[in-house]
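[recover] target loaded
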């Protein structure tokens, strides 16, 4: 008879994140500002097309050895940040990796 409550608790846990990440206001602001650079049409999401355009700009600025490499890295970024696998990235999806990188650079 103990199994039923345990199953309910387990299912309830699926609705909430196991380890909720907390961010400082400065981290959120920095994440939003960085995201805005890639959200070319300002619709609140970054698509593969927007990633490709940004990566071409970065390659032209010398951040990558060539456009092909830049685009491959952009595709990896999109896949890593697209948490719900809908083919686009919202700022809240990219925040975790962006803030983790910020914290490592401190």
């Amino acid at each position: 008879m103990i199994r039923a409550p345990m199953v309910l608790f387990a299912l309830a846990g699926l609705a909430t994140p196991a380890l909720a990440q907390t961010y400082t206001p400065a981290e959120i602001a920095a994440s939003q500002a960085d995201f805005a650079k890639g959200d070319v049409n300002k619709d609140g999401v970054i698509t593969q097309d927007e990633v490709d355009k940004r990566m071409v700009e970065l390659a032209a600025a010398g951040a990558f050895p060539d456009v092909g490499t830049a685009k491959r890295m952009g595709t990896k970024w999109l896949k890593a940040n697209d948490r719900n696998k809908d083919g686009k990235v919202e700022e809240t999806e990219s925040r975790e990796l962006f803030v983790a990188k910020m914290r490592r650079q401190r």
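[recover] notes: The domain at 22-104 is CATH 1.10.238.10 (Recoverin; domain 1).
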